[in-house]
Write a structure and sequence with these properties.
By secondary structure, the protein is an all-alpha fold. It has 13 helices and no strands. About 65% of the residues lie in helices and about 0% in strands.
């Protein structure tokens, strides 16, 4: 997504600092292995190192925006770490989600930023209504983080429960694997309900149903 920003010398200095740090931390082998992720830039820096580098930056919404819209893997992940929670509103959150094109970004955005927002449950409900596969997957990934943290509202959980009834049959691998992921988390606390749900699935209606059943039953066996 091409986005224009007003020049800010302080932000530009931080961006230049980031680029220098990334060049010094670049891993060509890892970068090559991630070539299918379709970034404009990918330095192949591992997540622990990205978090270390982000800790050296100021918490700043203008900086976070510049990093997020860079279409550089490491910068986008850094954006989720330096964005002040209080600066993110639902409109901007939905714009950020529209830039997600792989599950690593979905997970980092959900865990590092979205799960801390005051409107996190409303965001789950909004994303469940999206047509984009990665947006819908974000809803389920975020719901999983919220559930494990004891922060998923009954209303948001109900919305997930209702949406999964159809999304489990989605043709998108991204969507039905995200459903599978949330069901596995459900199974940790309510195995009986999850067992009943997956036993009632019709494999003839969706190409991913067999995979979902297999993945979820792995949890139910333990």
């Amino acid at each position: 997504m091409e986005t224009m920003f007003r020049y800010d010398e302080a932000v530009e200095n931080q961006i230049n600092k980031v680029k220098k740090m990334l060049h010094l931390s670049m891993n060509g082998v890892v970068s090559e292995s991630m070539s299918s992720l379709d970034y404009k830039l990918n330095y192949g820096v591992l997540l622990p190192r990205i978090k270390e580098l982000a800790s050296e930056l100021d918490k700043s919404f203008p900086l976070a925006q510049r990093l997020w819209y860079s279409n550089c893997r490491e910068m986008m992940i850094m954006a989720t770490l330096v964005c002040p929670v209080e600066s993110m509103d639902e409109k901007e959150a939905l714009k950020w989600v529209s830039c997600c094109h792989n599950m690593e970004l979905v997970e980092q955005l959900s865990f590092n930023l979205f799960r801390k927002l005051d409107f996190k449950n409303d965001l789950v409900e909004s994303l469940l209504k999206a047509e984009d596969s990665y947006a819908k997957a974000t809803a389920y990934v975020l719901a999983g983080f919220l559930l494990r943290g004891g922060n998923l509202s009954e209303r948001a959980k109900g919305a997930c429960d209702e949406s999964m009834k159809s999304d489990v049959y989605a043709s998108s691998y991204v969507v039905y694997t995200a459903v599978s992921r949330l069901l596995r988390i459900y199974a940790e606390s309510d195995p009986a309900s999850v067992t009943s749900f997956i036993n009632g699935l019709d494999e003839a209606k969706g190409e991913g149903v067999a995979l979902v059943k297999e993945n979820v039953r792995t949890v139910l066996l333990y």
